[in-house]
Amino acid sequence: MAGFLWREFQLRYTAGDPLPELAELLTKVVVAYEREAESSDRLPEEEYIPVFALDDPIDEYVDFIGLISACVLLHREDLIPRIHALVAGSAYDEVDFLIEELLGFYLPDRPAMDEWLWDKPYGLLVEVIVGETVAVKTKAMKKYVSKWYSSMKGLAHFWGKHEKMKPEYSSYVGYWAFSAAAFTYLYDLDDSAYRDEVAYPQDFVEYARSMPRRPVKLENGSELLRVAGGQSCRALETGSVLRKREVAASSKKASICLRSMPLNMARQFGSGIRVPERERVEMK
């Protein structure tokens, strides 16, 4: 059920649904995953299946980091602690540099990591994170976005799904590098060099930048909002926690009922681009 809702989210984005509606849908997605986790916890140990097995297949890693990234970009920061709770204390917690870097903007006391689970294609994203200047980060992000989908060949089950579409059914929901958009937003990068890459959800970044970031409320009642080094941050209310998250300086190499054709699908096939509702154009 949870996986179906997450795919519905991606399909509706590909189809061009309004982003505020998708932001609300994220609540149903997370609740479904929580129920799935509760059901798994009641199983005997030998039958237990984790909600997200991040090390195999890569699809589950893509889903997990994509779900966090969607919450970042659609300002559903309130859901991020709940998403982390799905893996907290498990073998898949505190094991991946990229996930920890993302969570570290919103959750306290995240560990410093120097390893990651999937070097292809995510080693390219590591280069973004460890880049010491904005120019280096931006150049590395362009490379990551341009290679994200092609690098999934032979790894991801979702690769090539658009080639198997049938009129009555298709498992294709879109190919979107949500994590690229999330880190572009969090690092405040100029995406003009790669915003037209077919896997880059540019309007997610525009939406995220249209409103201020929101702090995450912690269990003790305080609020946490971190920013990348050098960025400004709006003041929080008394009792809030404000820290700057400096990018790590070191790393270690890791041991895409559709209504006609959705605009984002058209964009990915070169027939058009995804644009906000008010600016949509009819496809030929």
Secondary structure topology:
Blueprint: H1 2-14, H2 19-41, H3 58-73, H4 80-85, H5 97-103, H6 123-130, H7 134-147, H8 178-186, H9 202-209, E1 216-217, E2 223-228, E3 241-245, H10 263-268
Parallel strand pairs: 2-3
Antiparallel strand pairs: 1-2
Helix pairs in contact: 1-2, 3-8, 6-7, 8-9
Q: How would you characterize the overall build of this protein?
A:
The chain has 284 residues and is mainly alpha-helical. The protein has one domain: PA2201 C-terminal domain-like (Orthogonal Bundle), CATH 1.10.3920.10. It is built from ten helices and three strands, in the order H-H-H-H-H-H-H-H-H-E-E-E-H. A three-stranded mixed beta sheet has the order 1-2-3, with no helix packed on it. A hairpin with a 5-residue loop joins strand 1 and strand 2. Helix 1 packs antiparallel against helix 2, helix 6 packs antiparallel against helix 7 and helix 8 packs parallel to helix 9. It is globular, with a radius of gyration of 18 Å. The C terminus is likely disordered.
CATH architecture: Orthogonal Bundle
Whole-number radius of gyration?
18 Å
Number of discrete domains: 1
How far from one another are the termini? 35 Å
Q: Any low-confidence stretches, pLDDT <50, length ≥5?
A: 229-263, 269-284
| Order of strands in the sheet with most strands | 1-2-3
Structural class: mainly alpha
Under CATH, the homologous superfamily reads PA2201 C-terminal domain-like
E-strand count: 3
**Helix fraction bin:** 25-40%
- Output the CATH topology: PA2201 C-terminal domain-like
The CATH top-level class label = Mainly Alpha
Helix and strand pattern: HHHHHHHHHEEEH
> What's the overall average pLDDT, rounded?
79
> What would the principal axes of the Cα set say about the shape?
globular
What count of helical segments does DSSP give? 10
| Largest sheet data | 3 strands, mixed
Oligomer: single chain
Residue fraction in strands: under 5%
